[in-house]
Amino acid sequence: MFNFASGPGQLPAEVLKRAQAEMLNWHGSGLSVLEMPFSSDEYREIAASATSDLRKLLNLPVDYHILFLQGGAYAHFALLAMNLMGNIAAADYIQTGHWSGRAIHEARRYGRINIAASAEPAGFNRIPPFAEWRLDPAAAYCHITTNETANGVQFHWLPDTGDVPLVADMTSDFLARQLDVSRFGLVYASAQKNVGPAGLTIVIIRDSLLDQCLDITPAVFNYGLQASSNSRINTPPIYSVYMAGLIFTWLLDMGGLTAVERRNKQKADRLYAAIDADSFYLCPVVPTDRSQMNVCFHLSDPSLKIEFLNQAEKQGLLNLKGHGVTGGIRASLYNAMPPEGVDALIGFMQDFSAGHSTLR
């Protein structure tokens, strides 16, 4: 079985087996992680280890805080605006698809939003070239969505926003490739793609941005207060933090983000090559902007989609249905998807196409 779901995504078997072994008694404590007090020494050790390993993976500069919070990235569409618009109630947003659109909608509740560039006229099949961007040099921040899961587009370059902090929703490609965090003022990501089960949102923020929140910001979602309290103003998502820590260790054991990026690129390149080689399948995304995480494509005969999905499921290829907004087929190739899963999908696609060759 291979799970191509966009989220929660497939988890590494090695990580699940370790969590299973530690379920009833974590490191001889007599406690399951599920029942640990968040003020206990055991949880402090789990959180400290996860923080340390994440810093290693990212080579994180010392002037950044890691926050383990709740709410999901959707909640942080609003929360980051509340935390960064206290001094300047205006921000730039780059509209690249479904999720950046949702982020814009939420942020508008708290300040003036300038859509500095949009790929909507092109049907969100590309990233707007930087020459098209119309940035506000007085904005509180500039927001991008580095990977659009519904539309299958991804930033493969980073903009220079000058003195305006660059902020990124990295939910679906966080820890899937090398990342120079020093280029950003803040990055945030829900865990359920590459970092573990749902329930955890990771926020990485430059210290200089920790005191810019609106007065209405709730204490538990005040990034500055959470940073000063080691993400323990309220009960953190303890088990999700524990699972993320196991993922961080797994990634380090794999060779870090350099090795992970190389593997992910190889998986995506093979699948896109198979799509482009067969007119039975169509990928509308401009090749230079195609996502390595979410490969979105269509059948040349849309009426065959249900049959395609049903037959794929019988072959153990699960959750290939595209997003409700864009339709079609979507294969999510997060870190835990092994190359064998991609090969199995390609083999199925070739067989399905051959079996319907008379219809073309």
Q: Given the structure, what is the number of helices? A: 9
> Biggest β-sheet, characterized?
7 strands, mixed
Radius of gyration: 21 Å
Task: Report the strand count.
Answer: 14
| N-to-C span | 30 Å
The helix-and-strand class reads alpha/beta
Q: Could you state the order of secondary-structure elements as H and E?
A: EHHEHEHEEEEEEEHHHEEHEEH
Write out the strand line-up for the largest beta sheet, numbering strands in chain order.
Answer: 2-10-9-8-5-3-4
CATH topology of the largest domain: Aspartate Aminotransferase, domain 2
Strand content is: 15-25%
**Roughly what is the average pLDDT, rounded to an integer?**
96
CATH architecture of the largest domain: 3-Layer(aba) Sandwich
Give the helix proportion (percent range): 25-40%
Unreliable spans: none
Description:
The chain is an alpha/beta fold and 360 residues long. The chain folds into two domains: 23-254, Type I PLP-dependent aspartate aminotransferase-like (Major domain) (Aspartate Aminotransferase, domain 2, 3-Layer(aba) Sandwich); 256-359, Aspartate Aminotransferase, domain 1 (Alpha-Beta Complex). Helices cover 34% and strands 16% of the residues. The protein is built from nine helices and 14 strands. The strands form four sheets. It has a seven-stranded mixed beta sheet. Strand 6 (147-148) and strand 7 form a beta hairpin. Helix 6 crosses helix 7. It is globular. It starts with a strand and ends in a 5-residue tail after the last helix. The model has no long low-confidence stretch (mean pLDDT 96).
